[in-house]
Amino acid sequence: MPTNLLLLLLFGVRVLAICPPMCTCSRGHRAVDCSARGLAILPDSLQHNIHFLNLSHNRLQDLDGFLNHFDHLRTLDISYNHLQNLPVGLPRALWDIRASGNYIRQLEKNDTAYHWNLQNLDLSHNLLERVVLINNTLSNLQSLNLSHNKFWTVPTNMPHNVEMVDLSHNFLLQILPGSLDRLPRLSRFYLHANRFTSLSDGVFGRLDGLQLLTLGDNPWACEDEENISHLLTWMQQTPAKILGCPCYTRPTCGEAHLATRRTWHSAAFTEPPLGADARHPVHRAPMHAVTSGYLSKSAQLNMGHSAANTSGPGEQVLIMGGEFLTPTPHSLSTQSSTTIRTRSTKKVLPGRARSTSHQIRSFETTILSLLCTVILHNNLSN
Hints:
Strand content: 5-15%
Oligomer: single chain
């Protein structure tokens, strides 16, 4: 056999061996897609110089120490597997880690201590209750997605250069004082669908770069004027756009720098995280309507998330499905007793005023009933 032919055959066999048989490869065999293959172990014959590796939607349970030799890896997608922790020994050259949809319960300090190049970290749809981050780590992180987990408080020591933080759909009750003071570049902050009733005074005061904040679908204690008033005052002064304004009768507020008020037709709470890949969209739970009006806690529990919110005359209402509707005169006449903010004073009505109004209506009903009884008695007597 001629030498040239032998070399050609050997080279051809080598080319065929670059891409694992259960995966597909592109970009000169440096982008490897092994998603949705039912894999329980890492495929063999992966080249060490790959840049992109997609292992999502498989049955992987343990990847500790299996990925540390991929020194050129930039994007790793291990979402929707059976992982209980972020794999130990991930390459330090990574820019993008997608680990949503697993069973990760906590993030230890050593899990991210050496990822200076990381820009995007997605840990949504896990079982996280706490994350331990060290100061000055993840110095290049821009996007941190921790939505759909089990956090009770906002994590401290978040990377100081982060631009987007998504903590929606958790169990957040409070933000510890000072937790947000060293985040000058944070521009998008998603806090909707949690359990906030109030927030500490000045908690957002140091977020100079804030552009978008979502606060809807939280059980705000709007009847507690002493604890909620400072948040309402801050919302009137901030240049940021706020979706789901606590105790307001419209879905959008803030933006103090605007001379005129806009009507926003935003159909969802969030925008895609930085670096989101349209080819592999994140599977989220259905979004609910922005909380544009106030209801008591018991009423919210009874109504669930399917109740549409009311608005003032001439405004629009964001209802389920993300559409805006203009209220009819009949609907406007029925909302006076549930609206807790007025356009002139913009103050929370005290509970005593609502109680007095209810007593007056009950008294009028009683008087009318007595009059009808007297008239009927006189007719029967005649």
